What we know:
By secondary structure, the protein is of the alpha/beta class.
Amino acid sequence: MNDLNGRSALVTGGASGIGAACARELAGRGARVTVADVNDVAAKELASEIGGDVWSVDLLDTTALDDLRLDVDILVNNAGIQTVAPIVDFDPGAFRRIQTLMVEAPFLLVRAALPHMYSRGFGRVVNLSSVHGLRASEFKVAYVTAKHALEGLSKVTALEGAAHGVTSNCVNPGYVRTPLVETQIADQAKAHGIPENEVLEKVLLTEAAIKRLVEPAEVASLVGWLTSENAGMVTGASYTMDGGWSAR
């Protein structure tokens, strides 16, 4: 499928996990993809694989983004981090870092990309939210707060961009088989007081009707469709891919 021929795309956190899957999906559809990641080595490897470009960037340095302009037709806000702890023990610095990376940086990137999108009469903003943008779980106050904020940013972008051919949507997966999920298992075990080998069943998948992790390629396939011409009437929406979690 080459429905994105002639389009340019930027994927943040694009060197691994969901971001890498999205970069491959968009490149496979014909887009010229820029892989944006703090991991320069991994980003270069993926860009070489898909015939794309690299933007080595630390999105925690938001002051560097204030005057940024992005000439891209498609923006995928995916970069994220996680910290698991009760509110009373939650490090304020960790809380602020998560808001910076997962709320402020997406705002600045959308702000930087919209002028080009408006001038082209076409734009696609896809925000990798989470079921935690619609629901809450204990011990994830910063992440849940950030994802709920991202939902608001996405909806305002949808309303402002509509007259200019720009759509903005959220994708809301449950737990995805990524390094971000794998590295939080020990923290989840500690927070819940259970062995690590019980975290998947007793914590991560307890609310899901389908008892497995989401695969990155599954998320990327939905992102790919949302960036296409066929999704031109889809905006301001939040698409769950959570195995039935949010049906409860």
